[in-house]
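Try this one yourself first.
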């Protein structure tokens, strides 16, 4: 719990801090990852490795399962939600790739010998792709089904995936913040874009009567 609060405080400084605070953050987030590297336990490490490695499968399984269920139940709304979640995932992935190679930030374990990785991490560090995927799925699923019993587990899962990337030493806290923003923002923008397209289609099919 203490480490979670430390990470949360660090993330807040990344967003709201002055130049001096950001400089402090740069030193501090290295310290967080060094502490994780020193204090890892086999059982906890295996759990977060499993959670991190299963992220892609879960992100793809959610819309696929909804679409199949929609076909079986002959539910057009469910199929439409599956398509929306897939679109959000695609937008998030493209934005993440563009930012990764635009910023080209090295992974923490490549710049600090005291930070050891416990998982794979080959592409540039900023933002966290796992985090953006997870928050894209969580946010789009929550928009499609705005019920507490959907929202709470969805964001708990996404937050756990994000934390796993810190614990495993493959991302800085700021990478995770950016991933959460990119994923959530992609889901929201995709939702708004779909709303705009629906309004445009309705206007074409049912133009306003000038008389």
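Now uncover the answer:
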């Amino acid at each position: 719990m203490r480490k979670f609060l430390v990470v949360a405080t660090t993330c807040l400084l990344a967003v709201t801090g002055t130049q001096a605070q950001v400089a402090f953050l740069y030193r501090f987030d290295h310290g967080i990852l060094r502490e994780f590297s020193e204090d890892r336990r086999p059982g906890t490490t295996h759990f977060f490795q499993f959670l991190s490695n299963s992220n892609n499968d879960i992100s793809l399984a959610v819309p696929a399962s909804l679409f199949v269920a929609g076909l079986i139940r002959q539910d057009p709304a469910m199929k439409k939600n599956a398509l929306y979640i897939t679109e959000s995932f695609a937008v998030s992935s493209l934005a993440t790739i563009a930012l990764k190679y635009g910023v080209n930030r090295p992974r923490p374990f490549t710049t600090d010998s005291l930070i050891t990785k416990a998982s794979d991490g080959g592409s540039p560090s900023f933002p966290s792709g796992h985090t953006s995927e997870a928050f894209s799925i969580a946010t789009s699923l929550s928009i499609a089904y705005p019920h507490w019993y959907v929202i709470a587990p969805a964001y708990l899962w996404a937050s756990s995936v994000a934390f796993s990337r810190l614990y495993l030493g493959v991302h800085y806290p700021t990478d995770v913040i950016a991933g959460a923003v990119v994923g959530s923002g992609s889901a929201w923008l995709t939702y708004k874009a779909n709303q705009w397209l629906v309004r445009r289609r309705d206007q074409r099919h049912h133009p306003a009567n000038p008389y």
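Discussion: The chain is about 80% helix and 0% strand. The CA atoms of residues 44 and 167 lie 9 Å apart.
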